[in-house]
Design a protein that fits this description.
By secondary structure, the chain is mainly alpha-helical. The chain has a domain of 55 residues. Helix content is 52%, strand content 0%. α2 packs across α3. The longest helix is centred in the first third of the chain and has 20 residues. The radius of gyration is 26 Å and the shape is elongated.
Length: 89
């Protein structure tokens, strides 16, 4: 499998911090594994790296919202009357 990456993309990758670079590499590895699992060679690795860098930037700008656990462990008492039609009453 031959992968070609332009020098501009390589400069972008090398300018990333180690943390971001690790995230980008993980995304690209996952992409390549998915391609191979589905039976074809990954194409245009340069595009995959660029999109992975964009994903990491977006995740940094807009992090996943943290779901706060609802500590309420009770439910209010409810009573539902059975419906009685006006004819039956």
């Amino acid at each position: 499998m031959m992968m070609k990456i332009s020098s501009d993309t390589l400069k972008l990758i090398n300018s990333l911090s180690e943390k971001k670079k690790g995230k980008v590499e993980a995304i690209v590895r996952r992409h390549v594994a998915a391609c191979l699992k589905n039976g074809f060679d990954p194409e245009n690795m340069e595009r995959a790296y660029i999109e992975a860098m964009e994903m990491v930037e977006l995740e940094e700008k807009f992090p996943e919202p943290t779901i706060e656990e609802d500590l309420r462990n009770w439910e209010p008492a409810r009573r539902y009357e059975q419906y009685v039609s006006p004819k039956a009453a």
